[in-house]
TrEMBL record:
Name of this protein: SH3 domain-containing protein
Main location: cytoplasm
Keyword Secreted included in the entry's annotation: no
Span of domain F-BAR: 32-285
Organism of origin: Roridomyces roridus
Lineage: Eukaryota, Fungi, Dikarya, Basidiomycota, Agaricomycotina
Pro residues bias (residue ranges): 407-447
Length: 555
């Protein structure tokens, strides 16, 4: 918890007074210049303006210290960034990953240089200009305020003398009047004593009257000069305060601009890093690594024992080393992505080389199942084939798995078809004949075969098999459905999808979209009718938030 600063001579809080309602301190004047606003009874405005100017100096000094500390922090951070950029990073890497890490170090060094420039700018421009204003304020205080404060104390002292002399003079006058009245009322034996007191009082009143007149004359002679000096001080203080307030606004604005420029520079560095990372494709880097540094797929056979009687002196009995090609199936432990879009399914199927029987049917649907190792399998298509005797039935197709999975619920069965007067979704590209799978060459005979236990163990692991071919995707046909209660609007955005086809709403809670539109998804019910909203605010309509999920893909 911050400690509250105690009131000091620079604080204006002790001079704050409650304003009386209905009392106009300025007598109807609208002028609010310092030279017309800090007078009052007993010179009440003098101490307030003095405190204001002392507080202004203190604020400027605090701001100068702020710039000093801010520049030091920025300089330390910049030096740490530069030292970090000099550290070794990715020395053993190759390809695009090496390029990305080099760019990361280079941009970190540039960020350090940008922060060092900001530290220098704060020191030279912000701190330097603030120090110049502080010197100007200190000069004003020494040359104008300090002498005027001394004259104000002298004026207050003379005014106190006048008050004391007036009190004595008025007291003597009252005594003389009392003695004169007593002498007139009681002309008896006390007459001589009263006469003596009266003469003494008359002598005292003459001295006090003289002092009162002298002190009053001194104050009267001092007032014109004081008023002139105070008026000049008020004008100079107002000029200095206006300059200071303008300076404070400008200097804070310069600081915000400098930091904003640095943020833009950092964002540009990050964008350059992202641009380089766009070129980094892990699969391609792995392939390049194998291409440049791979040692081939020939596995040497184990040495063969040749008994001593069978050996010939000329070495002809020595067996020649044999090799066999590596034909393993990769067993990957990486979890597959939890969602796969329809274009990704088509691309994976077109790139595969596994033939399915002609009776195998492909039902595109969203599959959300869990793998045996706890990771979620990528959503894809479910292949159903009655001729495969369950060996390929309900196989979830993804980039790495052919493991049997449970079939997920079918897609929305009540989907609104396009109106007859409107054109249907754009037709899919013409069906092309898939090229036959490449015929793999038979490896040369090998003298070594794996053990049966190794074969059984390899079948138990999750292997990466080629994908079966799939006919081109057709635009999903949607049948009319009954209106469903709308999902809660304004929910958190789960992910973004991109429309594959045009869609025209059939009920009030649905919305129209075109192919290529981006939609923010807020809910994904199991019936296949999701909730979301268009990112295009010009075409977004309040209360319309439902759309078919099989018309979109992950963005």
């Amino acid at each position: 918890m911050a400690v509250r600063r105690q009131p000091s001579s620079t604080s204006l809080s002790r001079y704050a007074t409650a304003k009386s309602p209905g009392v106009d301190l300025y007598n109807g004047s609208t002028n609010r210049d310092f030279c017309n606003s800090f007078w009052g009874v007993g010179d009440a405005g003098v101490n307030i303006l003095f405190a204001r100017m002392r507080g202004a100096i203190r604020t400027t000094d605090e701001l100068r210290n702020f710039w000093k500390e801010r520049a030091a922090i920025e300089e330390r951070y910049a030096n740490e960034l530069v030292n970090l950029a000099k550290a070794t990073l990715g020395k053993d890497e190759i390809g695009e990953l090496r390029n990305s890490l080099d760019t990361l170090r280079l941009e970190t060094e540039k960020q350090g240089a940008a922060h060092l420039t900001l530290a220098s700018q704060i020191q030279t421009e912000l701190e330097g200009q603030t120090a110049a204003l502080l010197n100007k304020q200190i000069t004003h205080r020494k040359n104008l305020q300090a002498p005027l404060e001394k004259r104000f104390k002298v004026k207050q002292t003379q005014e106190s003398y006048v008050l004391k002399a007036r009190e004595k003079y008025e007291s003597d006058c009252l005594r003389i009047a009392s003695y004169s009245q007593q002498i007139a009322v009681n002309p008896g034996k006390d007459n001589e004593r009263l006469q003596l007191k009266l003469r003494r009082a008359q002598q005292t009143v003459q001295a006090n009257e003289k002092d009162f007149a002298n002190f009053t004359k001194t104050v009267l002679d001092m007032i014109p000069g004081w008023e002139k000096d105070w008026k000049d001080f008020c004008d100079g203080s107002q000029d200095l305060e206006e300059d200071r307030l303008d300076f404070m606004k400008d200097i804070a604005w310069m600081y915000a601009n400098a930091v904003s420029t640095l943020c833009v520079s950092d964002d540009q560095s990050c964008e350059r890093i992202r641009t380089v990372l766009d070129q980094l494709e892990p699969d391609k880097d792995v392939e390049n690594f194998v291409h440049e540094y791979g040692t081939g797929n020939e596995i040497p056979d184990p040495p063969v024992f040749v008994p001593y009687p069978a050996q010939q002196p000329d070495g002809s009995s020595k067996p020649k080393p044999g090799t066999r090609p590596a034909q393993f199936e990769r067993a990957s432990g990486r979890p597959a992505p939890a969602y796969q879009t329809e274009p990704e399914i088509v691309a994976n199927i077109n790139a595969s080389s596994v033939d399915l029987p002609a009776s195998a049917s492909v039902v595109p649907e969203r599959v959300d199942s869990q793998s045996s190792d706890g990771g979620s399998l990528r959503s894809g298509a479910v292949y159903q084939n009655s001729e495969l005797n369950g060996s390929v039935s309900h196989a979830a197709i993804n980039g790495r798995s052919m493991a049997p999975q449970q079939q997920s619920p079918p897609p929305p069965q009540h989907s609104p078809p396009p109106p007859q007067q409107q054109s249907p979704p754009p037709p899919p590209p013409p069906q092309q004949q898939l090229p036959p799978p490449p015929q793999q060459q038979q490896p040369p005979p090998s003298t070594w075969q794996p053990e049966p236990e190794q074969q059984s163990m390899s079948l138990l692991r999750r292997v990466s098999g080629p994908l079966p071919p799939q006919p081109p995707m057709q635009a999903p046909y949607q049948e009319p459905r009954a209106p469903t209660p709308p999902q809660e609007e304004g929910g958190p955005i789960l992910f973004y999808v991109k429309a594959l086809y045009d869609y025209t709403a059939t009920i009030d809670e649905e919305f129209d979209f075109q192919a290529g539109d981006v939609i923010a998804v807020t809910a994904t019910p199991d019936d296949g009718w999701w909730s979301g909203e268009l990112l295009d605010e010009a075409r977004r309509e309040e209360g319309r938030h439902v759309f078919p999920s099989n018309f979109v893909c992950l963005f």
